[in-house]
Amino acid sequence: MPAAALLASIALIAPGHAPAATQRWEPPQEARFQYQLESSDRSHASTGGIDVGICNPPASGGPCVRPQVFDIDLYEDGRISGNDHTIDTAAVNAIHRRGGHAICYVSGGTAERFRPDYGKYVRFDRRIGHRLLGKPFSSRFSNEYWVNINNGRGQRDFVLRRVAARTRKCAAAGFDAIEYDVVDAYAQGKRVTGWRISAHTQLIFDNALARIAHRNGLSVGLKNDLGQVPKLEPRFDFAVNEQCFQYRECTNNPSPGYRAFTRAGKAVFQVEYRIPPSQFCGDANRLGFSSIKKARDFSLDAEPWISCR
Predict the structure, then answer these.
(1) pTM score, two decimals?
(2) Per-run averaged pLDDT (10 residues), the chain, 309 residues
(3) Alpha helix locations (H) across the chain?
């Protein structure tokens, strides 16, 4: 990207709020992690649908253990709030009262039909000749669409503005960190996404996300995108991964994989769905990852939650 265009892009995504002067929190490697993006349990309505008191035996057995870091959605589950726009400050406050920290889940690379700003994506897509919204993310998640992060018609600038607006909401709600999901469109290919995205374009986008988070006083996690870990690790404060043990990608694709984060003293929060703890927890503990087992069907309610350590 030419320098002038890059500066213009940065100006477009500037949040307009100065981040807090205090040093941002960064998760320690030893912290246990919970991934709960869904809830239909109204018994937890007072804590935004999040089970902040969960305590289960680890994979190795023994007394129950509790997560210290909760990765939760920016918004309360609609089955709890009754709408699509209630920011989950109740959960953030409850997590903080227990001495924990909260990561704000935001999809960076898809447009989700169930989000309050989805109409803005649709209107922009129409305005530029349907060059923003691509194919459904997957058969299971068919209500969200890959977005085009090329910038020929201002698509990347638009997406970054929307993500920046959500990031400001995360910061205002008191979250400590943010996880931007779906940041590896280049690796999926046009057949999956509907768009031809280069590795260079993905790096521009992902680095812009890290800058947005830091401007808002939040630490930022790199979600998946193993192929670009060596280049992105210096910009990100921790990593979040799904299924790298199942697909044997944790320490390669390319090497050193997530050891780039652990060698830098950074946390790797890792989740498996389809394989049992006996097949990954030993390696996870040896590598210094905070790994957990969640539901086989990829649902992300409070349970199951089995921590490797």
Answers:
(1) 0.92
(2) 43 43 88 96 96 97 97 97 97 98 98 98 98 95 96 98 98 98 98 98 98 98 97 98 97 94 98 98 98 97 97
(3) 3-13, 78-81, 89-97, 118-127, 155-172, 185-188, 190-193, 199-215, 229-232, 259-263, 281-287
